[in-house]
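Lab meeting, item 3. Inverse folding demo.
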């Protein structure tokens, strides 16, 4: 069950509590992705983010990287379901910075404002999904919850705005969407043609057996 749950109040930890939490966290880690506490009180670590995107993303080509987003060489495609990415971040990094880092890591040219980061929690045999505010700190949430992803995981999705606001997309993005839709439509048409051709062959074969002279 996937339901929305209001954000829980943020409880901040003292420096000593952070140190104890990190020691406990690292003792429970099984994938070597440990946290490190620096002398200035800032700590670094890893989070895993599952990509659950319904719409295609626009990826910059090697020719357009470093230039303006959405050049004619950019490509749009759907990410495979269940794609998980690991990021190394610090306790000062916000949700907005994590989203921007994810998109930059994979040369995604889409506007970061189109995406939102969610936390998924398991409580009492229920799954709760909650949208995080841009100013929350994912590594802090990871530390408090512990390293087990079944207790807390992060998910990147598009903003849930009901109907798609197509005017928010650039012309190259819309053109890429149309190309993808045309390709998918053609693929589905070919599948249907093959299915009905096979059905027609079977039907003709059956009719031939019925009316075959004795």
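The presenter then showed the designed sequence:
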């Amino acid at each position: 069950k996937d339901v929305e749950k209001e954000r829980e109040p943020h409880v901040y930890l003292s420096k000593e509590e952070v140190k104890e939490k990190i020691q406990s966290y690292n003792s429970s880690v099984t994938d070597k992705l440990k946290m490190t506490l620096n002398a200035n009180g800032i700590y670094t670590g890893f989070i895993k983010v599952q990509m659950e995107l319904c719409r295609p993303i626009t990826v910059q080509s090697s020719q357009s990287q470093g230039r303006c987003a959405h050049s004619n060489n950019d490509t749009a495609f759907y990410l495979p379901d269940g794609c998980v990415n690991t990021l190394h971040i610090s306790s000062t990094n916000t949700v907005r910075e994590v989203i921007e880092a994810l998109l930059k890591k994979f040369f995604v040219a889409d506007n970061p404002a189109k995406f939102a980061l969610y936390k998924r929690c398991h409580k009492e045999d229920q799954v709760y999904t909650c949208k995080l505010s841009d100013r929350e700190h994912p590594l802090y949430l990871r530390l408090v919850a512990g390293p087990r992803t079944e207790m807390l995981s992060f998910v990147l999705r598009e903003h849930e705005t009901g109907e798609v606001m197509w005017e928010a997309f650039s012309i190259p993005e819309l053109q890429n969407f149309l190309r993808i839709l045309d390709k998918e439509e053609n693929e589905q048409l070919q599948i249907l043609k093959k299915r009905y051709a096979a059905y027609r062959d079977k039907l003709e074969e059956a009719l031939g057996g019925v009316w075959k002279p004795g």
